[in-house]
């Protein structure tokens, strides 16, 4: 049987080690042979990146395209399938579009107390007076925008080579929307350490940091330690709020949360997992059956986006009178425009603020540096 000149040249190249174009089967064999001399050849097509690929009548193009995945938080979903960030922070969307800042007024009671208003029966005869005072806090808004473009050439080539498997425009739009979603998620949890006035849930200024109530991971506690923690943590929060409020949310590192499914090894406490024991303890102490323990990787000091260097546990009220974030303009994209009917582009934009602690004393951070 005679071989074609092309095949003969390929075989010669295998033995000589000559460089062939990347993405060819022979090139992949040479690469595998060089890197896996002891294990033999791996027959695979290390194709170059991009939608332009060489196929034959024996090639089956599989659907759908494999998508990249990213870390997201929350268990609930919004209408478009994204996690609900409201599990962590109250978010107001659509108020004050295109404004530069939000102005919050705070009021304070002035004057005496109830006792100062008691009259008659040998007490004072003049009426007491009461009044209030106001001050304000300003929370800046920030704009975000990103352009996307394509050409007729790109669109036609992607369509012809891969058909219905890749829609170039929708895939690029999906990637841009994901960038917005992940960026807002970062803002909700940690703000932006490089920009002033963009705080997140775990990086709020003016919040008390407690380093004595929790000194190691919850999963590392024995039955006595976790019982002691449950007995004093809500008390510490209550004192921090000047004996006025109880928390309704405890946000902890995911690594610690996942370990709380272990059972408490103490027969005197009944058959409880650590997570169910803590949930019941918080619900009883706060008299709130809806108390929730949430978790994210951002709380963990080993997470690459954690800017704190410690494991941070946040005990707080997830309530818009305690803290709030604004998204005056949610993700919005313009229609595609062109000046030459060959190149097309559009812009997506949005507007957001950092998280604002209206009542910082209703938030308590518990920090420790022990690796979970």
Please explain how this structure is put together:
With 372 residues, the chain is an alpha+beta fold. Helix content is 25%, strand content 23%. Strands 2, 3, 9, 10 and 11 form a five-stranded antiparallel β-sheet that branches. It is flat, with a radius of gyration of 30 Å. The protein starts with a helix and ends with a strand.
Q: Which whole number gives the mean pLDDT?
A: 84
**Strand-residue proportion:** 15-25%
**3D shape:** flat
Number of beta strands: 13
Largest sheet: 5 strands, antiparallel
Helix and strand layout, with pairings?
Blueprint: H1 5-16, H2 25-35, E1 91-93, E2 101-111, E3 130-151, H3 152-162, H4 168-190, E4 208-210, H5 223-240, E5 249-253, H6 254-259, H7 274-286, E6 292-296, E7 311-316, E8 323-327, E9 329-333, E10 337-338, E11 343-353, E12 355-357, E13 363-368
Parallel strand pairs: 1-8, 4-13, 5-6
Antiparallel strand pairs: 2-3, 3-11, 5-7, 7-13, 8-12, 9-11, 10-11
Helix pairs in contact: 1-2, 5-7
List keywords for this structure.
single chain, 372 residues, alpha+beta, 13 strands, flat
Task: Write a brief structural summary.
25% of the residues lie in helices and 23% in strands. The protein has helices at residues 5-16, 25-35, 152-162, 168-190, 223-240, 254-259, 274-286; strands at residues 91-93, 101-111, 130-151, 208-210, 249-253, 292-296, 311-316, 323-327, 329-333, 337-338, 343-353, 355-357, 363-368.
């Amino acid at each position: 049987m005679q071989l074609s000149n092309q095949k003969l040249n390929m075989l010669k190249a295998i033995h000589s080690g000559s460089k062939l174009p990347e993405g060819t089967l022979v090139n992949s064999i040479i690469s595998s042979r060089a890197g896996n001399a002891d294990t033999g050849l791996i027959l695979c097509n290390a194709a170059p990146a991009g939608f332009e690929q060489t196929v034959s009548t024996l090639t089956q193009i599989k659907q759908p395209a494999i998508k990249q995945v990213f870390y997201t938080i929350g268990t609930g979903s919004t209408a478009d399938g994204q996690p609900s960030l409201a599990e962590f922070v109250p978010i107001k969307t659509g108020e004050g579009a295109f404004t530069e800042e939000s102005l919050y007024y705070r009021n304070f009671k002035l004057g005496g107390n109830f006792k100062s208003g008691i009259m008659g029966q040998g007490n004072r005869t003049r009426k007491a007076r009461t009044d209030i005072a106001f001050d304000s806090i300003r929370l800046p808004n920030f704009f975000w925008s990103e352009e996307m473009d394509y050409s007729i050439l790109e669109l036609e080539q992607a369509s012809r080579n891969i058909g219905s498997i890749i829609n170039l425009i929708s895939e690029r739009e999906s990637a841009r929307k994901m960038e917005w979603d992940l960026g807002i998620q970062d803002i909700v949890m940690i703000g932006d350490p490089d920009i002033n006035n963009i705080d997140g849930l775990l990086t709020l200024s003016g919040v008390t940091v407690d380093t004595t109530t929790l000194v190691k991971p919850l999963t590392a506690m024995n039955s006595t330690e976790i019982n002691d923690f449950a007995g004093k943590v809500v008390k510490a929060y209550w004192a921090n709020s000047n004996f006025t409020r109880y928390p309704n949310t405890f946000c902890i590192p995911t690594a610690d949360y996942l370990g709380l499914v272990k059972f408490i090894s103490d027969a005197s406490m009944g058959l409880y997992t650590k997570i169910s024991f803590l949930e019941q303890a918080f619900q009883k102490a706060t008299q709130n059956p809806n108390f929730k323990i949430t978790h994210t990787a951002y709380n963990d000091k080993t997470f690459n986006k954690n800017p704190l260097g410690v494991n941070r546990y946040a005990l707080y009220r997830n309530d818009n009178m305690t803290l709030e974030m604004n998204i005056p303009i949610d993700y919005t994209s313009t229609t595609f425009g062109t000046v030459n009917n060959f190149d097309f582009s559009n812009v997506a934009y949005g507007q957001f603020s950092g998280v604002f602690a209206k009542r910082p004393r209703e938030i308590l951070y518990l920090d420790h540096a022990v690796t979970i």
